[in-house]
Amino acid sequence: TVYTFHMPAFIVISGYFSRSFDMRADRLKRLVTGVAVPYVIFEIAYTLFKRWADDDPGQPISLLDPWYLTWFLVALFVWRLTVPLWKIVRWPVPLALAIAMLAVISPDIGDDLDLQRVLQFLPFFVLGLFMKPEYFQLVRRREVRLLSIPVFASALLLAYWAAPRMTSAWFYRRDSAQELGAPWWAGVVMTLALFGCSVVLTACFFAWVPRRKMWFTVLGAGTLYGYLLHGFLAKGSRFWGWFEDYEWLHKPLGEIFVSVVAATVVTALCTPPVQRMFRFAMEPRMEWAFKRDAAELARERARSA
């Protein structure tokens, strides 16, 4: 159930906060320093970590083949570059859905830059682009919150029924229908069905996001930190066989324990101290790499005059 909406919700929010993006020089600089450079850093770091932790010295460093979580940075870079285009087309969300459906029936797209994911998750980013603040207020109404409870319960029951009957790979959106052994039309149906389910569950999730500032509100600025940094622990736990060595972790109480620990760790990774520690990789200061634009120079001359 979580896989149905956790990445879609993250991507909708990413689209929402990309609404003001255009091809202005300062925004392009932030796109490079806040997305492209972290991608290069974490792609190299993840690869070196795998070589060491998984005893796999042959793991290649390839910027064309995102490993594990870094695909999202590639996708965000591409999505933001396309923002001006989505603002001028007449039916942006249906068009993005059409692109996603074409992607899921096109096995020739291949694995370069994880383009299947870039294109199949695209509708959620475009949806976020056209969200307005009042839309979030609508889903936070009391009646929506009450309605979300049976919706989540129904989703859990449906997931329990579907788990042994279908592959979870559909939720990752990294393969075409043919690569999953399904006919092409199944890809179209699954794309539409999963989009609908994801939008409903994402709305239910947003219904429970509090309106007022809470102790965890400050963590929102560090979401990408938690997302990328937790990958080292998630992969490390598998490389080092933590779950294989302790059978009790596979029992109900063990699964609850792992969930609580994981939530605590990810929360800690989003905190301001961690953000300050890893800002050099996530938000590097790179003024030396860019020419100063004319508008900035004019502002400085005006201040010094």
Low-confidence stretches: none
Order of helices and strands: HHHHHHHHHHHHHHHH
Share in β-strands: under 5%
Q: Major β-sheet, in short?
A: none
Count the DSSP helices.
Answer: 16
Distance between the termini: 60 Å
Percent helix = 55-70%
How many distinct domains? 2
Silhouette: globular
Number of strands: 0
Describe the protein's architecture and organization:
The protein is mostly helical and 305 residues long. The protein contains 16 helices and no strands. The chain folds into two domains: 1-211, no CATH class; 212-296, no CATH class. It is 67% helix and 0% strand. Helix 2 runs antiparallel to helix 3 (71-81) and helix 5 (92-104) packs across helix 11 (184-207). It is globular. The relative contact order is 0.13. The mean pLDDT is 89.
Which tags fit this structure?
305 residues, 0% strand, mainly alpha, globular, 16 helices
Topology:
Elements lengths: L1 H15 L8 H29 L17 H11 L1 H4 L5 H13 L10 H6 L1 H8 L3 H7 L2 H21 L6 H4 L11 H24 L15 H17 L2 H4 L6 H18 L2 H11 L11 H11 L1
Quick rundown:
This protein is mainly alpha-helical and about 300 residues long.
